[in-house]
Amino acid sequence: MKQALIIIDMQEIFFNYPQNYLFNNEQLVKNINELIKQAHEKNIQVIFIQHTSQNEKDALFEGENDWKLHKNLLVSSTDKIIKKSKWDSFYQTELLDYLRTNEIEQLIFAGAQTEFCLDTTIRAAFSLGYQKNLLFKKTHSTLNGVILNASDIINHHESIWNNRFLTVIDGETKL
To answer: Which Gene3D superfamilies match (predicted)?
Structure first.
């Protein structure tokens, strides 16, 4: 089954300001880099999704420092970068066409934020026919919310996603 690793919104904004730090952000980057390294070794396509604001005054406007992919990610020239402007990585982007053109059958998800762009994209992928997807624990994260802390948000979403929208893999991060 042909796979693609999809990494959502791992951008500098989540690493530049303490109030925006993702939960366990240093371990998160290590875990995602481990997935990237394995994907590159196994010729699995790596796709970075990059939130891009249409507002020139926004921190995530294209070209701004906060908009850039995190400097410690193992981005290769063979990786695909797709810009999005909404929570759904499929909405008005080339992602679906790219996956179909490259005959990708299974998606492996990672990135941020768990309850926003990651959740929306995971559910959209399922509805679009990608129903055998994977997610490794500790390869996605979010910020503390008003009602729930980041850890609870992550656990809650993993419990909803698992065996419904994808398979959550607990244990060694191994493709």
So the answer is: Isochorismatase-like
Residue whose tokens read 């604001």: 53
Successive 10-residue mean pLDDT values, the chain, 175 residues: 98 97 98 98 98 96 97 98 98 98 98 98 98 98 97 98 97 82
Alpha-helical (H) ranges within 6-83 are: 13-16, 25-41
**pTM, whole model, 2 decimals?**
0.97
Phi, psi of 27 (to 5 degrees): -65, -35
175 closest CA partner among 34, 7, 27, 29: 34
Strand ranges, E, within 2-155: 3-8, 45-51, 80-84, 106-112, 134-141
Cα-only R_g, the chain: 15
